[in-house]
Amino acid sequence: MPQTIGHQAPVADRPVLAIGLANGLVAVVLAALAAHGPMAPTDLDAQRQVDTAILLHFVHTLAIMLLAYWPAPGRWRLTLALAWLVGIILFSGSLYALTLFNQPWPGAITPIGGLFLMLGWIGWLGGLLVVKRPDSD
To answer: Which family does the similarity line name (predicted)?
Structure first.
């Protein structure tokens, strides 16, 4: 957690937390469209794809919000959050386009989005091993 003063709660990295919160809103809207909207997939394969998009969208949204409280330099947190944001847009966004909007072309960029999602996790793990906490020796 970022530094605290006395018994105060940790302070979040506001830009990173804002990215996470905005993503949460978008994830809920798209999940509602996928479940109840006129564009909701009726094909079982399409439903599986949109479920995967929603799951990874929500998981990485929560990871971004958690990242906002990681005690590392702000630039490091923002870089990881942006890697995940790009990953969400390319991975989940391409699956949303495929299933909700019947656009076949985005399927080619889905793996690139997955790569950005993986890079975010690799970056956080690397940062955890490399970045020194302010209160450590």
So the answer is: Belongs to the UPF0382 family.
